[in-house]
Amino acid sequence: MKIFKNRGDFYIPKSDYKSSKEARILHIILVFTVIFTAVFLVLLSRNYSSAADFFGNGEVTVTQESVTEEVLPEIEGKTNYLIFETDDFEKSIHYIYLLQADKSGKAYKFCALSPKTLINGEKMIDIYAAGGGASLQTKITEYLGIQIDYYVAFKNSNFVNFCDKLGTFICPIYKEVKFSGGDSDDKYTIHVKEGDETLDAKNFSNLLRYYSEKEKNYSLQNEVLMRAYTSLFNEDNYEDSDSLFRLLIKSSSTNITVRNFENGKDALMVFCKMSNDITVYSAEVNYEKNELTQDSIKNIKGYFS
Questions:
Q1: Which of 71, 74, 84, 260 is exposed most, by the fewest CB atoms within 10 A?
Q2: d(CA 134, CA 256)
Q3: What's the whole-model pTM score?
Q4: CA angle 174, 159, 218 (to 5 degrees)
Q5: Confidence band (pLDDT; 50, 70, 90) for 34?
Q6: Residue among 155, 180, 168, 178 nearest 251 (CA)
């Protein structure tokens, strides 16, 4: 039957003879293709170990995108630090803590102490005033029975300037802190709300001082320290570690030397680049009339020996 009379006319056959013939041809081709493919695969599996061997006689290679992971240096041993902050006139200690870099265990260990701790009846600030950081380091080493390798003593303003270069960090605050206090020439103010707070250098210093002096909550002080170290020891600060070390020397009184810094560069790299995988511990202490209890001293030895 013919439809239309002009150019482009097309026809609809009166029977389906032509279409059924085409279908049979297609079925035959399909069957042939399936049989040929099956025979081809059997022969290929018998004579060649892979398609690459068949097409290129072993010369065809498969290119895979390689992901290179930085190999960090192997480090071991433990290093103990005594770190504290004084007022700008060095008349009082705002806070003081022990820090251990456990290179074998890839861990930080902290122990916040009371600035009013008595060592054989002598106040720590008096020991510091008489002989400096080295004298305080020696006295605490003897008193606790652990080896303290280095000390770092900051004046308040110098600590804030130094930590400004390290950046800010997030710290959980379990209860709002709103406080103003201190002596007339050494006042400070801290206001942080409950929840996760971003602490800058000034708030970091003042919060440590508040927990140490006002609340005498050394557990919370340890928590702030743990958050700070695991956040501020990062890859960006590692890349800038040479200039940060020079600033540390200018900002503090310390027995850490350039050689000590260079020798510890591998450990610094590991702690900075593995910051999220570093384990943190804290040793809590108790006092009786400003003297550490014997259980507390044993606890410190267990962590820092």
A1: 71
A2: 11
A3: 0.77
A4: 35
A5: low
A6: 155
